Automatic annotation (TrEMBL), chain A:
Pfam families hit by this protein: SBP_bac_1
Cleavable signal peptide: 1-22
Keyword Signal belongs to the record: yes
Oxidoreductase in keyword set: no
InterPro entries: Bact_solute-bd_prot1, SBP
Protein name: Extracellular solute-binding protein
Superkingdom, taxonomy of origin: Bacteria
Transmembrane feature ranges: none
PANTHER family for this protein: ARABINOSE-BINDING PROTEIN-RELATED, BLR3389 PROTEIN
Lineage, highest ranks first: Bacteria, Bacillati, Actinomycetota, Actinomycetes, Streptosporangiales
Organism: Nonomuraea terrae
UniProtKB/TrEMBL annotation, chain B:
Membrane protein topology class: Multi-pass membrane protein
Keyword match Ribosomal protein: no
Source species of the chain: Nonomuraea terrae
Localization in the cell: Cell membrane
Any one GO BP annotation for this protein: transmembrane transport
Entry-linked Pfam families: BPD_transp_1
Domain ABC transmembrane type-1 positions: 89-295
PANTHER family: BLR7065 PROTEIN (PTHR43005), SPERMIDINE_PUTRESCINE TRANSPORT SYSTEM PERMEASE PROTEIN (PTHR43005:SF1)
Alphabetized UniProt keyword annotations: Cell membrane, Membrane, Transmembrane, Transmembrane helix, Transport
TM segment ranges: 27-54, 88-113, 125-147, 167-189, 227-248, 274-296
The protein's name: Sugar ABC transporter permease
InterPro entries: MetI-like, MetI-like_sf
Length: 451, 304
C-alpha cells in the first residue's frame, strides 16, 4: 500500500512539474515563443528566424525568443497551430501564419490587431505596397499580420523535353487546349516523360485547392468561388465542372504522374529535385517559388536549370481577357491575442521582417518579396531570372475569398479534386457533391448561390 | 491490504462510524491521488468528448470559442455521409479480414503446429512472431512500406513493377496488420492448448480419429472460451487501429483505405471539425460495444 501511495505522489509531482517548465529558463525576464514550420528540404524560415532571434536579443536585453519548430507539411503545421491555439496557456506568442487561415482566427479572437504598432513603424508606410498590406486584413478592416512572403503561380516547362517533342521554345500557351495539346504531344513523341504535373489530391491540401483547382477555375469566364455582389458562395456550376474536366482529362489520358505519385506527399520534391533535373517531366503547374529548389541556396542545387527550364503564364480557358491567370496568397507573421508582451512581440515581428531577414527568406524560399527594398536588391533576383516574370503576374492575379469559412470550402474542393483524380467521380458528379456539401461548410443554405 | 487488516483495530482508537467506514477510508485514502488524477486526465476528456459530439465545436474559427449545442445534428449528418458509410464498410472488411480471419486463424495454426516441437524450434518461432508484435506501429508500417513500395523488396524479388499500396491498399494494410498482430492470438492459443489434456487427444487417436477430427471434435470445443475471448480482444484492438494504416496509405488513394478511425482523424484534425469527429468516435465506441456484447453472448450460450 505504501508503495502505491508513493507511486501516486511521485506521479502527482511529475505532472505538477510539467506545467511550469518553459517559463523558468529566464527568471525575471520575458519570453516570447515563436511557432514556425521547417522541413528537411525547407530550412529557410528557420535560418531567417534564428538570425532575427540573435539580432533581437542583442537589442532587447531581458527578452528571450523561444523558437518552436513544427516539422512537416503545411497541413501538419495548420493542425499543430490550431491545437496549440486552443488554450491561452499553450498558444505561441507569435506565429508564422498562412493568410487564408487569418479570418478564421480573427473570428475566434485568437489574433491581435497590429494597426496601432504598424502606425509607429516607418517601414510599414515606406516599404510595403498597398496590395501587400491587405494580405492579412481581417473582416473588420484591421491588419492581423506582417507579410513575410507573397506569391503568384504559373507554368514551368522543360525546354529540352519541348525541343524533343518538336514544340516551340519559348512556349506561350494561349488556351487550356494549347496546354493539353502540348502535353499530348510530349506523351506521343517523348516516351518515358511525364507530360504534365499538378497538385490534385487531398494530401497536398491547400496546394491542391490553390495551385491546382483555383488556377483553373479563375481562368474560366467569370469563374469564382465567391460571388462578391451577392456576398454568397457559388455552388458549382459550369465553371466548376470545366475546371474539374481539365484535371479529369490529364489523368484519364494519362498525361499526368501515375496515381501513386499523385498521392505522394513528396510530389513537389519528386517534381523539382528528381523529374525536372532528369528531364522526366514536361510541364508543371506550380508556384513562383519553384526555382528555389534549384538555386545555390537549395539543399540540392541544380545550376543548369537556368538554361533548361522555362516558365509561362497559365492561360485562361479559351484565351479570353486578360489572357492569363494567377493566384496569390502568402504567409505573415502574426501575434496572439494571449501574449502579455504585445510591444515586445511586435518589435520581434519588425525585426523578423526587416530588410535583411526578409531578403534571407525570399532568396531561400524563392517566394516573392513583400518589401520594395528587398525586391530592388540585386541579391534577390540574382540566380533567379524567373523573378521578374512571376512578379509581373500580379497584373492578372486573383486572391482567395479568405473568409472564415474558406478553409472548409477548400477541404470540399480537395475532396472533389481527388475524386476526379482517381476517377471515383466524373467532373459532373464531383461538382454535384461539392454543391451538396457547400451549405454545411459555409454555415447554411442562405450563404450559397447556385450557378 | 492484508498487512493493514492484520493490525488490531484498538491500537488507533475506535473512531465514530464503526470499522466498516474506516475500512473504506483505509483503501480509499491512499488511492485518492491516483483517482483524482484519473478523474482529471481520463474521465474529464472522455466526458468532454461526449459533450462536444453534440455541439458544432471546431478547432479554429468562431465556433471554436463560441460553440453551440446542436443536439443530434452531427449524428444525422453522419448517417447521411457517404464517406462515413464507406469508412464503416472498410472498417468492417479490415476487422474481419485482418483480425477475425487473419490473426485469429494464423495464430491458432502457429500454436497448433508448435505443439510437441522441440524447445529450440519453439523459441525461434515465438521470437520471430513476437518480434513483429513488440515493434512500434510506425516501425512496422515503415517495414511494410519498404516491402510493398514500387522499388521495394517484394517487387525486386518478383521482378515486377507494381504499385501495391495504390492498386491494393486494403490488402496491403490487412496483410501488415495480420503480420503485426498474430503474436497475440498465438500466445493466447498456446496457453489454451497447453490446458487440453493430452490423454483425451490420445484416446481419440486410439479410437481412430484423424488429426482433423481430433481438432474439430476435441481440441476446438475445449478451447472455445479462449477463442471467444481472443476474438473479442483482437476485434476491439483492430477496430480502433489507426497508426498502421495512417503511416502506410494515409487512408488513400482517395478513400480506398480510409477506415473509420482515419476518417475521424481527418474530420477532427485536418478539417478541424472536432465536434463531428467526436460524434464519429462515439459511434465507433458503440460499434465496439456491440461487437463485445455479441461475443459475450456467444460465450454465455456456449456455457449453457
Amino acid at each position: 500500500m505504501m508503495r502505491r501511495l508513493a507511486g501516486s505522489l511521485l506521479l502527482l509531482a511529475a505532472v505538477a512539474g510539467c506545467g511550469s517548465g518553459a517559463s523558468q529558463e529566464n527568471p525575471g525576464g520575458k519570453e516570447l515563443e515563436v511557432l514556425y514550420r521547417v522541413d528537411v528540404t525547407w530550412p529557410h524560415l528557420e535560418k531567417m528566424l534564428a538570425d532575427a532571434k540573435k539580432q533581437y536579443e542583442a537589442a532587447h536585453p531581458g527578452v528571450t525568443i523561444k523558437l518552436t519548430p513544427v516539422q512537416g507539411t503545411p497541413e501538419a503545421y495548420y493542425t499543430k497551430l490550431a491545437l496549440l491555439n486552443r488554450s491561452p496557456g499553450s498558444a505561441p506568442d507569435l506565429y508564422y501564419h498562412d493568410t487564408f487561415q487569418v479570418n478564421a482566427d480573427v473570428a475566434a479572437g485568437k489574433l491581435a490587431p497590429l494597426d496601432e504598432h504598424l502606425a509607429a513603424w516607418p517601414d510599414w508606410q515606406t516599404q510595403f505596397p498597398d496590395s501587400v498590406k491587405q494580405a492579412a486584413r481581417g473582416g473588420d478592416g484591421k491588419i492581423y499580420g506582417v507579410p513575410i512572403s507573397t506569391d503568384t503561380r504559373g507554368l514551368w516547362y522543360h525546354k529540352e523535353v519541348f525541343t524533343k517533342a518538336g514544340l516551340p521554345v519559348p512556349w506561350e500557351p494561349k488556351t487550356w487546349n494549347d496546354v493539353l495539346t502540348a502535353a499530348r504531344t510530349i506523351k506521343q513523341r517523348v516516351p518515358g516523360v511525364i507530360p504534365f504535373s499538378m497538385y490534385s489530391t487531398k494530401i497536398h491540401g491547400e496546394a491542391t485547392t490553390m495551385q491546382g483547382f483555383e488556377m483553373l477555375l479563375y481562368g474560366t469566364p467569370g469563374g469564382t468561388l465567391y460571388d462578391d455582389a451577392q456576398d454568397k458562395w457559388v455552388a458549382g456550376g459550369k465553371n466548376f465542372t470545366d475546371a474539374l474536366s481539365f484535371v479529369n482529362t490529364i489523368y484519364r489520358e494519362e498525361l499526368a504522374p501515375r496515381q501513386a505519385d499523385a498521392h505522394n506527399a513528396k510530389l513537389a520534391d519528386k517534381m523539382n529535385f528528381e523529374w525536372f533535373p532528369a528531364g522526366e517531366l514536361g510541364i508543371s503547374l506550380d508556384g513562383a517559388w519553384t526555382a528555389a529548389a534549384w538555386k545555390p541556396t537549395s539543399t540540392k542545387p541544380w545550376p543548369q536549370w537556368k538554361d533548361t527550364i522555362g516558365w509561362a503564364a497559365m492561360p485562361t480557358q479559351n484565351g479570353q481577357e486578360p489572357g492569363a491567370v494567377s493566384m496569390s496568397g502568402g504567409w505573415v507573421m502574426a501575434m496572439s491575442t494571449y501574449t502579455p508582451h504585445k510591444k515586445e512581440a511586435f518589435d520581434f515581428i519588425a525585426v523578423a521582417t526587416n530588410k535583411e531577414n526578409s531578403l534571407t527568406y525570399s532568396v531561400g524560399t524563392g517566394d516573392l518579396a513583400p518589401r520594395k527594398d528587398v525586391a530592388a536588391d540585386p541579391a534577390y533576383s540574382a540566380d533567379n531570372p524567373s523573378v521578374k516574370f512571376f512578379t509581373d503576374l500580379a497584373a492578372v492575379t486573383h486572391y482567395r475569398p479568405a473568409y472564415e469559412a474558406y478553409p472548409k470550402v477548400s477541404a470540399q474542393i480537395q475532396e472533389a479534386m481527388e475524386a476526379v483524380t482517381t476517377g471515383a467521380r466524373t467532373p459532373e458528379e464531383a461538382t454535384a457533391a461539392y454543391a451538396r456539401a457547400l451549405p454545411t461548410a459555409v454555415g447554411g443554405a442562405d450563404r450559397v448561390v447556385a450557378r | 491490504m492484508t498487512v493493514a487488516t492484520a493490525r488490531p483495530p484498538a491500537a488507533t482508537g475506535a473512531p465514530p462510524g464503526g470499522p466498516s467506514r474506516r475500512g473504506v477510508l483505509r483503501w480509499l485514502l491512499p488511492l485518492a491521488p491516483s483517482l483524482v488524477l484519473l478523474a482529471i486526465f481520463l474521465a474529464g476528456p472522455i466526458l468532454w468528448s461526449v459533450y462536444i459530439a453534440f455541439t458544432n465545436e471546431t478547432l479554429t474559427g468562431s465556433a471554436s470559442v463560441n460553440s453551440q449545442f446542436v443536439g443530434f445534428a452531427n449524428f444525422i449528418r453522419l448517417f447521411g455521409d457517404p464517406n462515413f458509410l464507406n469508412s464503416f464498410l472498410l472498417t468492417f472488411v479490415f476487422v474481419i479480414g485482418s483480425a477475425v480471419i487473419g490473426q485469429n486463424t494464423l495464430g491458432l495454426v502457429i500454436a497448433l503446429l508448435q505443439r510437441g516441437r522441440g524447445r529450440a524450434t519453439r523459441s525461434v518461432v515465438n521470437g520471430v512472431v513476437i518480434a513483429a508484435w513488440v515493434m512500434p506501429e510506425i516501425v512496422a508500417a515503415a517495414c511494410w512500406f519498404s516491402f510493398l513500395a514500387e522499388d521495394g523488396t517484394l517487387n525486386t524479388v518478383l521482378g515486377i513493377s507494381q504499385e501495391w499500396l495504390y492498386t491494393a491498399p486494403m490488402v496491403a494494410v490487412i496483410l501488415a496488420n495480420i503480420w503485426r498482430g498474430t503474436a497475440f492470438s498465438m500466445l493466447v492459443y498456446s496457453a489454451a492448448l497447453s490446458e487440453v489434456p493430452a490423454d483425451l487427444v490420445e484416446a481419440a487417436a486410439v479410437d481412430g480419429a484423424g488429426p482433423v477430427r481430433r481438432l474439430v471434435h476435441i481440441t476446438l470445443p475445449l478451447i472455445r472460451r479462449s477463442i471467444m475471448a481472443n476474438l473479442m480482444l483482437i476485434t476491439l484492438q483492430t477496430l480502433a487501429s489507426f497508426g498502421l494504416i495512417y503511416a502506410l496509405t494515409g487512408g488513400g488513394p482517395g478513400t480506398a483505405s480510409q477506415t473509420t478511425p482515419l476518417y475521424m482523424y481527418e474530420q477532427a484534425f485536418r478539417y478541424f471539425e472536432i465536434g463531428y469527429g467526436s460524434a464519429i468516435a462515439l459511434v465507433l465506441l458503440v460499434i465496439g460495444a456491440l461487437f463485445s456484447l455479441v461475443y459475450l453472448r456467444l460465450i454465455k450460450v456456449e456455457d449453457a
